[in-house]
Amino acid sequence: MAKIQKLFLSTAVAFAGALSQTSLASDVEVNGNLRTLYFNRDFQDGNTDVVSLTQALKLSATGSLTDSINFGATFIGNAKLDGHGDDQSIGTLDEDSDSFAKLAEAYVDVPLTESTTLRAGRWITSYALFNDQDNRATEPSTQAIRLESKLGRATVYAMYSDRASAKEQAEFEQYVDANGDKYGVYFAGATGTWGNLNVTGEFGFAEDFATQGYVNASYLFDSGVSVDFHQYIADYGSAHTSSADQDSRLTNVAVRLPINDILKLTLSYQGVGGDVAYNARWGGADDPWYVTWNAVQYSDFNRKDEDSFLVRFDYTTPIEGLNVMVRYADGEFEQEGRDQDHEEGNLLLHYDVASVPGLSFRAMLAYIRVETGGEDINETRLFADYKF
């Protein structure tokens, strides 16, 4: 317990020190979040089970340095309460299976025109090809410089990133390719909404490592039915870690049907083509999340030539604040000349406590079976969040 208190105290002191430097700040907003995470990955085929219990503290501040320049800063501390097995492998603890703290965000926003802003520093990103997923106790983060501009109903953006920090590490690591050379990632995109149609397009390029493109189009009909289309494409360069001079593509299309006011049904298909499995990572500590419907709790269903189908139900219960999601995905891919089955089922329970604002609980249960072996898993993730 003393170690936990020391970690959280040092994080809070560092955060307060950063705020004390913003003497020009006219309005600083501070938000916090406490997250307790229990993670149990139970292997059914002989591998060592992994169990982790952690307590995270997240403190974020946004404000104004001058009349026009804004800033953001986020400090994160994550303390190990318990754990066994290879618990450093599941993204909850550092490489030594220990607690850690880091400055996850430190950036400034500088307006160049009424519609264009320059951001520089480190922050938690949320693009399709560059996103820092929030599915553990703490989040990854990206160091970059970005231009963003509003053009009518669309937003366009361009970014350059040279390093990233994984969700379980304090350091920001530079991107390094298979030849040991350092590189940066150039990234651009646009998103906009026109009536019931939303369209997003993105492109990323890292010399000799990878080129990726992404397109999303979604349409909401007046009946409440929605159609959602995602397309990823990638060419992996000569210095890519595992897929040099090869290509891949991933397609996902989903239809969402409102059965009534409290129950929705989603049906989704995903297919992977090209030379290799689809790998969305830009290298190093970068750890993006696929934004397709078939990227579920454990599996992304992104193996070479894998086809998968998903059915999902979302239910708003009569209990205030309690929502339930159930989904099942079934895939098939070929390995060593033989078709292999791949399936995963998920149950998600999310409860916002109405009597205690900011308090919520989440239970994520998964059943994973892969015919090749090594991934027959029952997984439990339990979250308790308190925002203040």
UniProtKB/TrEMBL annotation:
Pfam families: OprD
Recorded family membership: Belongs to the outer membrane porin (Opr) (TC 1.B.25) family.
Alphabetized UniProt keyword annotations: Signal, Transport
PANTHER family: CHITOPORIN
InterPro entries: OM_porin_bac (IPR005318), Porin_dom_sf (IPR023614)
Name listed for the protein in its UniProt record: Outer membrane porin OprD
Region forming the signal peptide: 1-25
